[in-house]
Structures are given as structure tokens and as C-alpha cells.
Amino acid sequence: MAFRLSNNLIGILNTITFLLSVPILGAGIWLGARADGTECERYLSAPVIALGVFLMVVSIAGLVGACCRVTWLLWVYLLAMFVLIVVLFCLTVFAFVVTNRGAGETVSGRGYKEYRLGDYSNWLQKRVESTKNWNRIRSCLQDSKVCKTLQDKNQNWQQFVSSSLSPIESGCCKPPTSCGYTYVGGTDWTITNTNSTDPDCKTWSNAAMGLCYDCQSCKAGVVATVKRDWKRVAVVNIVFLVFIVIVYSVGCCAFRNTRRDNAYHGGWKGGRGYA
Predict the structure, then answer these.
(1) pTM for the model
(2) CA-CA distance, 164 to 243, in Å (whole number)?
(3) Where are the domains of the chain?
């Protein structure tokens, strides 16, 4: 039996989506089930599993609805796609709004930048400063050993100040420049100035589990990283949104064809389609 072009396209697109959902769902289950998994990995497992299940259910609904001419399944599929379009649009707008403020400050004679939490949007500041959220983020940073690269490097002072540090490395793995501490190597610093008014200077510790993980500069580094990543995600979302709108339009055509054929042939399975 020949199928209409729109039904074929929906079937092909949803087959691809279903195949993609399998490794996504598997990755989420694996992250949550790892015996030696970090707190960060377990935290990420829930949204990954939810995404995998959503894609799998929606793709099955679209695939069966298009190939078997099941009108109500196509209706469910189109409803889910419409919700996805609305959510993606809102998330994209929101991402641009909350990331329109804040940037790293260039430090004279340094290859890296430093970050201040107050420069970023109030919404991001509140999310990061929440004790519950920060304890989880801090645990993720420590488990992932974000400062280990600096600890392992055998750099002298000149090499260190000319190096390009990530926002998290700059904020969490060294004291702020305003502290005036003396660099020893890696993440070791000698406290030579106790008169600084910056509270981060008193928070700094040379201990591997201490460092500046509780500093405002560390929180600012996390926010700067989130801002950078969200901007990238927002751009990808725009491209994906255009793709989803096209798929949704094709799905509407498939739904119209299926409803017309079912009405004409008096059943959801009967009838000959048209190429």
C-alpha cells in the first residue's frame, strides 16, 4: 500500500528520533545506576532519563500514527510536538534574558580573567547562592576535580599568570588577585596579606577540598560558565526549533491525510493511499 509523502516523512523522522532516544535513555540509567557515580552524575541522570522517555514515547506515537493511520495517536503526537515547540521557545527567550548581563574582568598583567557574582542577572545569582543548590554544585566541582589540572602542572609564576584559565578555574582554584597572596605552585599559595577586605581571602584554603570552593568568586565562575553554555544552547535551540516547526507542519499534513482517508474508507486501517 502506498503512503502519502507526509506520512512517509513522519515515519522516517520518528524512526530516527526513536533510535536516538535509546542511547539517551541508556545513558541516563547508566549515570543513575553507577555504584561509583558522583553526586553530579546522579543529579544529571533524572533529566536525561526524562528526555529519553519523552522522545521514545512521542516518536512511537508519531511512527504508529503515521504508518498505521491511527488518527488519535497522530493527534497526541501533534499535541506533544506543540507543547515541545512552546517550551523550547520559552526556554530560548528565557536563556537570552538571564544571560544578557555579566562578563569577566581583565586583570592587568594576567592571561586570565576574574569574575564577580554581582555582575550577573539576579535570577542566576539567587539560584547559585541558594545553600541547597550550592552544596550540590560544590559537591559536583569537588567530585569532578576541576582544579586537578592546575595542581598537576609544574608552572612557575610567569607561566601561571600568562595561562588562560576557565571561569571555574579562575574563581575556584586560586585566591582573588586582590588578596595579594604569594604563588607557590599549582594551587598552593602563601598567605602574606591579612588586611584584605575581600571575604574570599579569608575563605581561601590550600587544602585540596577547600581551595576557593566556598568563595563568591567560585560562584561567579560557575555562573559565567552557565551563561556561556546557555548562550550556546539557545543558539542550538533556535536551529532545533525551526526543525521542529517543519516536522510539526509535516505532521499536520499527515494528520489531515489520515483523518480524510479514515473518513472516506470508514476505518483507521482501510483504504489505498496516494503517492
Answers:
(1) 0.76
(2) 37
(3) 1-101+237-255, 113-223
